[in-house]
Each structure stands twice: as C-alpha cells, then as structure tokens.
C-alpha cells in the first residue's frame, strides 16, 4: 500500500514531502524502512525534493530514519547535494556531506558537479565546504564540463567574475590554475572576457604567475590582448606590471597596442589605454606600421577619386556622425546636470549668510554659535557649496571640449560631485531645523526621521543605478574622486546545443 504510485509516479512519501508533513514522513519510513523510494516520473526522489525545497527537518528525518541508503537522484541527473548547493542551503550541504561525501564527484546530465554549481553561482562558503570534503575526491577540481568547452570550476568562477570562489579554488589546489578550456583560455582570459574589475585579484600570488599573465589561447591572444580588445581602462596595475609581456603577438601578429589602435572607440577609453601602454614602452607590432600605412593610403584614395571608396567614405561619414551625436548627447546631459548643481550652489550660498537663529545686534555674531548643531550646519553647508561649485567648474570645462574620453570622465566627475553635494545640503537642512526647533522631543525625532528617509532613498537609488548598469567605482586622488566605468555586463551563458547549466 505504501509503495503504490499515482499517475505521476509519486508515492505517499513524495506527497508528504511536497506538502511538508514531518510526522507523516517519519511514520511512512518507519512502516517500510527498507524501501528506497526511488524517483517519480520527473526523476525526483523524496530526498531530492526535500533538499530542493530547503526542508532541513525532512532531510534529517529521511537520512536518520531510513535503514537502507535513501535514493538521492533528482531532476536532470542531479543529486540531493546539487539541489542543496543550487538553492543555497549551507546547513543541508553539511548534513548531506556527512551522510555521503562521495556525492561531491557526481555529475548531472550536463556534466556539472556540485562544485561547478557553487562556482557558477558564486557561493564561496558552500564551495569551501565542498573543498574541505574533497580531500579524497580531488579529481573533481580538475573535472571539466564537456558541453561547455571543458571548463573547470575555476574557469566557471572566472567567467562569472566570482573572485572569491576563484581565489578559494586556487588556494586549495594551485595547479588547477594551469588548466585551460577547449579554446585555450585560462582563468585570467575568462576574467578579461567578462570585463570584470579584478584589481584586488591581481595581488593574489597565483594570479601573478608569468605563465598565466602571458598565456595564449588558441587565437594567440594573451590577457593583455583581451584587455585592449574590450577596452578595460581599470586594468592599470595589470598593464604596468613588469611580468606582463607588452609586445606579445597573437595569431595575426598584432600586439595589444595594434588592437586598441585599430578598435572603434565605443567607450571613450581608447586614448587612456594607449597612453598607459606607451608609458610602459609598449609598441606597435611588425604589422602595426603596415596597418597605419594601409589606412593612410585608403584615405588618400578616397580624397583622389569620387567614384572609388564610396563604401569607405560613407562608413567614415557614419562614424563621424555617430561621434558628433555622442558628443552632443554628452553635452546635453552636462547642461541638464548644470541646472541642478547651480540650484544647489545658489541655495547653499544664500544659507551661509542667513544662519538659523539670526545674528547679535551689537557685534553681528551668530546667536546660536555655541550650539553643536549649528556647527554641523556650517560644515555641511560649506561642503555642499564647495562640491557644487566644483561640479559647476567641471560642467563649464566640459562645454569647451569635444573629446569622448574627456566628456565621459567630466560627466562622471560632475555626477558624483552633484550627488554628494545634494546629500550634504540635506544634512545642512536637517541640522538647521534642529538648531532652531524648541525642546520638543517628538518634533525633533519627526524631523530627523523624515530627513533620514531621504538618505535611505538616496542609498537605494544609487545602489539600484550602479547595479542595473554595472557601474564600477574606483577611488582615486583628492576629494575621493570617483571614476565610473559603465560597462554593460556581457554574460557568457553556460550552454551548448540549447542545454543550460541551470
């Protein structure tokens, strides 16, 4: 009776697990403890269903009550450990590993082990649990997914930009860094291809190995070639490193300087990257000069003949038109921002001469000058004025320049200065009211709470903005100048022939 199945292949235990009835689950297993309760028509066993749904109590009951080893199979060849990892249940992962650590090396229909899943999702703590238990199953570290260019767990973590998991894998098994996928890419190639900010990772010992830094894939491209190809301006330390071969040639006999010189300046970073490469003596390759001469000859041909080079001429015109449109759009944004920052500067300037509480008639000093709240008001108001005036200067000089790189940087600097001037102005307003309000506790709390809501909204909207556009913030010199690298994430879905990893 207990082993009967419905049309979907579910037993009574399947149903009890699905609707989370612990007492029923325990009773059913005790009545028939030797039955393994295999998968239903979907391929899901009761243990897998409990793990997938995060039912810790049911997993405990099934593992502790069953006399024989319960079936752990699940959807698409996964195991209960796969489910616990994918749905991020660290405690359940620990329980399943204590029960059967051999599941670490089990792979699903796509060839993914639980460690591959943790690397893909960036679950560092779960990856550490798996590595701690993989002492006698170390081959899983070097196992590649055949349907996904034979990528190992380290390759997957790198392609997804999960620095924590990558560093963890490299610290446990340093030699796994030497592996490459079917395209010849090592972990650094894959970090570059995802346009990730890897500055902190650069200081890891395994990351600085010459073989990795200058390794070539099947197209002969080193990580520096990819940095130039993707125009990643935040790789300054990588470019400046003496371990990086600046004159390495790819299969087309081009250096990184050749690639960035011939690339379209779509992000406004071309000049900046070229300057950095030239500062470390990076030069054009043997075919770089030929490319320049060829480009000059093509331009001469366009000027000499009206019948030839029509396609090139229209292409050049299209690029010029696109460049003018970009410049116009950036300046239009600067003008709009200038209106906002000018308003902030006007308000904070006026507030500086109309202090809360007024002035004394005899000496003209502020009446409430000894109150701490007024001192905070003065500091915040001054900060807002200085930041807003700095933004005005940025937008003013922005109108005098037409270079993409300069316009992009100026707009980013002005945006950050304006945002923080706005926050400082709000602090000044809150402290100004606090200074002159009567000694009424509820009124002071109300004002501070309402003003505090602005900062909650301010932080949420900034976080949403940076997350949506994947803006990378890199602190620089005076005044903690911020540089925004707006890079739309180009994800590499782990799929082949329509089969996704998840």
Automatic annotation (TrEMBL):
Annotated region (Disordered), positions in chain: 303-325
Tree of life domain: Eukaryota
SMART domains noted in UniProt: ANK
Ranges occupied by ANK repeats: 8-30, 110-134
Topological category with respect to the lipid bilayer: Multi-pass membrane protein
Residue stretches making up the PGG domain: 328-436
Main location, first listed in the record: membrane
GO cellular component: plasma membrane
Keywords for the protein's UniProt record, in alphabetical order: ANK repeat, Membrane, Repeat, Transmembrane, Transmembrane helix
TM helices/strands, residue ranges: 338-356, 376-398, 410-434, 440-462
Location relative to the cell: Membrane
The protein's name in its UniProt record: PGG domain-containing protein
Annotated source species: Vitis rotundifolia
Lineage of the species this protein comes from: Eukaryota, Viridiplantae, Streptophyta, Embryophyta, Tracheophyta
């Amino acid at each position: 009776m207990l082993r009967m199945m419905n049309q979907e292949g579910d037993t009574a235990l399947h149903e009890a697990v699905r609707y989370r009835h612990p007492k029923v689950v325990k009773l059913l297993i005790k009545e028939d403890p030797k039955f393994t309760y295999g998968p239903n028509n979907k391929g899901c066993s009761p243990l897998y269903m409990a793990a997938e749904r995060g039912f810790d109590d049911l997993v405990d009951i099934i593992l502790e009550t069953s006399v024989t080893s319960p079936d752990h199979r699940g959807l698409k060849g996964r195991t209960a450990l796969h489910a616990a990892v994918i749905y991020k249940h660290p405690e359940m992962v620990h329980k399943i590993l204590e029960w059967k650590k051999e599941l670490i090396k089990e792979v699903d229909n796509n060839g993914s082990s639980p460690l591959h899943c943790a690397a893909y999702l960036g679950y560092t703590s779960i990856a550490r649990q798996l590595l701690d238990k993989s002492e006698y199953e170390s081959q899983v570290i070097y196992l590649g997914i055949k349907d996904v260019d034979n990528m190992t767990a380290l390759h997957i973590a790198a392609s997804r930009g999960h620095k924590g998991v990558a560093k963890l894998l490299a610290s446990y098994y340093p030699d796994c860094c030497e592996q490459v996928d079917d395209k010849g890419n090592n972990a650094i190639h894959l970090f570059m291809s995802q346009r990730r900010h890897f500055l902190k990772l650069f200081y890891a010992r395994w990351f600085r190995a010459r073989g990795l830094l200058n390794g070539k894939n099947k197209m002969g491209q080193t990580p520096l070639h990819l940095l130039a190809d993707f125009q990643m301006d935040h790789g300054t330390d990588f470019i400046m490193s003496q371990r990086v071969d600046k004159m390495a040639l790819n299969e087309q006999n081009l250096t990184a300087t050749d690639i960035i010189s011939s690339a379209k300046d779509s992000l406004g970073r071309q000049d900046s990257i070229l300057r950095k490469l030239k500062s470390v003596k990076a030069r054009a390759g043997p075919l770089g000069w030929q490319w320049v001469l060829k480009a000059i000859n093509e331009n001469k041909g366009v000027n000499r003949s009206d019948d030839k080079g029509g396609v090139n001429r229209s292409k050049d015109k299209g690029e010029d038109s696109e460049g003018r449109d970009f410049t116009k759009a950036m300046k239009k944004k600067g003008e709009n921002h200038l209106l906002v920052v000018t308003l902030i500067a006007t308000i904070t300037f006026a507030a500086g001469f109309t202090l809360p509480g007024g002035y004394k008639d005899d000496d003209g000093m502020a009446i409430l000058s000894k109150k701490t709240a007024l001192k905070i008001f003065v500091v915040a108001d001054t900060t807002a004025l200085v930041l807003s005036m700095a933004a005005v200067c940025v937008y003013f000089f922005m109108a005098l320049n037409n270079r993409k790189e300069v316009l992009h940087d100026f707009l980013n600097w002005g945006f950050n200065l304006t945002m923080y001037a706005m926050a400082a102005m709000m602090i000044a307003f809150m402290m100004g009211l606090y200074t002159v309000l009567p000694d009424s506790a509820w009124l002071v709390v109300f004002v501070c709470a309402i003003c505090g809501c602005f900062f909650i909204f301010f932080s949420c909207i900034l976080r949403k903005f940076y997350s949506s556009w994947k803006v990378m913030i890199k602190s620089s010199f005076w005044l903690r100048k911020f540089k925004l690298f707006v890079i739309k994430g180009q994800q590499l879905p782990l799929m082949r022939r329509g089969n996704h990893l998840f």
